[in-house]
Amino acid sequence: xxxxxxxxxxxxxxxxxxxxxxxxxxxxxxxxxxxxxxxxxxxxxxxxxxxxxxxxxxxxxxxxxxxxxxxxxxxxxxxxxxxxxxxxxxxxxxxxxxxxxxxxxxxxxxxxxxxxxxxxxxxxxxxxxxxxxxxxxxxxxxxxxxxxxxxxxxxxxxxxxxxxxxxxxxxxxxxxxxxxxxxxxxxxxxxxxxxxxxxxxxxxxxxxxxxxxxxxxxxxxxxx
Length: 224
Hints:
The chain is α/β, with parallel strands linked by helices. It has one domain: Alpha-Beta Barrel (TIM Barrel), CATH 3.20.20.70. The protein is 48% helix and 17% strand. It is built from eleven helices and eight strands. It has an eight-stranded parallel β-barrel with strand order 1-2-3-4-5-6-7-8, surrounded by seven helices. Helix 6 (116-125) links the parallel strand 5 (108-113) and strand 6. The radius of gyration is 21 Å and the shape is globular. The N and C termini lie far apart (44 Å).
């Protein structure tokens, strides 16, 4: 199962990558909004993506606001580097755009997917990645892994190669359930990743290690 780190902090990416815990980066939705201009945003994205070297998922929603040149702005983002993956909200209105971009060779990740049927439709439209809102599904009904399982069955039956991505599973148990259900990847934040790394009794074990007897001496009842 791949791990995609949700961050725009390059130090976080390098920290995780050095340990083999990063297979991609999902930028926050507002990562490019502070740029002075669209050209500046593209320049920042290029610098970040080249430094990250993994697939970098960037939100294309802001480009859709500029209706006159939305498609060109989306293509400009996608052309930044070879490892950029464009994120688009999945909807009937965006399905044609998603398919057109896909046919032009642009890798597109469908977001705002909450059912197995939506995942199928997004994949058939050409999405290379389908991001399923596991965090929202789990908060609402605890059905995140069930939706992943249903989507996996539909995509396999249709022989579609889109990757299923569990978006922000709430902890180790949820991530494990999504992986067992067929998710190809999970998106986690840096803080969540660090929390999942910890053995539940690590702090206690470290504290008690100083009390352990030296080699060759048995620990006896009453030893402090």
